[in-house]
Amino acid sequence: MFKLLAKLNKWLLPNYTKEQLDLAKATKFQKAIIAWKYFVTTRALD
């Protein structure tokens, strides 16, 4: 299930690495997206 979510995240959610987002200047919503992507990615790798 997490592998499917990881693929959907990659397709639907923005990639802040390519945009070179500074975490100190990120909004709470952007931080929430980063945390969600991290959570799903770590679960998909297990």
TrEMBL record:
Domain of life from the UniProt record: Bacteria
Protein name: SsrA-binding protein
Biological source species: Flavobacterium qiangtangense
Lineage, highest ranks first: Bacteria, Pseudomonadati, Bacteroidota, Flavobacteriia, Flavobacteriales
